[in-house]
Amino acid sequence: MREIHAETSRAPMGGAVFHQVSFMRWFFIFCLCGLPMTAWGVTYEEQAVAAVLMGEAWSEGPRGMTAVAEVIHQRAVEKGRAPLQIISASRGRIHAFSCLNGTTVKHLIGRFSQEPAYQEALQLAEITCQNPARLPGLARFANHFTRTTERPYWARGHRPVAIIGQHAFYRLEHY
To answer: By the 8 A CB rule, do 135 and 146 touch?
Structure first.
């Protein structure tokens, strides 16, 4: 593999000297430090949201992943938090998003990042994090979802506001 060497350039008005770190150095810094490596222009939050979309609704395709992204956004709005905080929420060992039970966000990113559908999930995550007004509203302001074959305690007495694929979406007032 060819290494791109650091280049030095001066600011137009004789300002500070800037160093462009080579790709290989950047790669090793992040690998050795154990920090999540992000592609240029993709935030860790977007990678994390994309991994959760894959974990929760990959089998449901783009519509299912979009609806789950809308649930993440709706919870973020209702709780006044960022999407990363929403997907990371847990009560003890039980996470708000079941694909994180028994694992970590970092592990989930590693598990799904090489899948072709992850690129689509990344695009949805970017919209969710940066421009949620572009989300189409498939989930009809739902803040919870479950498989249609399950009936969790929190769904009792509630009707789904949308059913997309094998997921039922609910809007709960207090949670």
So the answer is: no
pLDDT digits (tens, 9 = 90+) for 65-88: 999 999 999 999 999 999 999 999
* Contact assessment for residue 151 and residue 83, using Cβ atoms and an 8 Å cutoff: no
Q: Map tokens 């572009």 to a residue.
A: 134
Strand ranges (DSSP E) for the chain? 7-10, 17-20, 90-91, 94-95, 144-147, 162-164, 167-170
Q: Could you tell me if 150 and 144 are in contact, meaning their C-beta atoms sit under 8 angstroms apart?
A: no
Closest CA to 4 of 32, 37, 38, 27: 27
Residues 6+ apart with CB under 8 A from 100: 52, 55, 87, 88, 90, 108
Q: Whole-prediction pTM value?
A: 0.77
